[in-house]
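ok trying again, last paste got cut off:
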Amino acid sequence: MFVLDSLKDEAKKIMDGDSAHDFEHVMRVYRNAKKICKEENANEKLILSAALLHDIVSYPKSDKRSKTSSLESAKKSKQILKKYDFSKEEIMIISDAICDHSFSQNKIPRTLEGRILQDADRLDALGAIGIARVFATGGSLKRPFYNLDDPFCKTRIPDDKIWTLDHFFQKLLKLESLMNTKSGKVEAKRRTMVLKEFLNYLKQELL
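nice, full thing came through this time. structure:
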């Protein structure tokens, strides 16, 4: 679709996020969303448009505005979509999906489009690429890998603002149970096994 090619160009020009939220992240989410769309028989044009624009505003995790990134992306997406052949209803569906997708918003999206975008985004936080993203973010924020006394959060509450490995226990290992779609759940289960296998190998090396 011509409009998707144009939106890809728009997103690529705008985005300047860190390696965990760069244009390659957007394209991975786009591909995840495309696969889920086929399984769920959903509106590909709307969902893929949302995938391309879902992180056009991405504040660093260290920025106080970080939790508003999805809200700002939704607002900016409306301005962009008005330049193309989208109806008012379609623009609302896309912007609502973007607004609701973020883990920090703690929402179950109202629409199928939103639920698929959320699943597609969460899948990129799992598996081998998810592990790479966690440590890339931790490194950029100069956080230590793990708590020396209790690296696997056996006797303490995880705090990923201090230790990178805590992000697995605070967020990533919970995502499988929060997926919305059947196909999303299947893929999340596979990718979560990769996380668990990594943690098992790490335990052997640390303990």
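cool. The chain has two domains: 1-112, 125-207. The chain has a mean pLDDT of 89.
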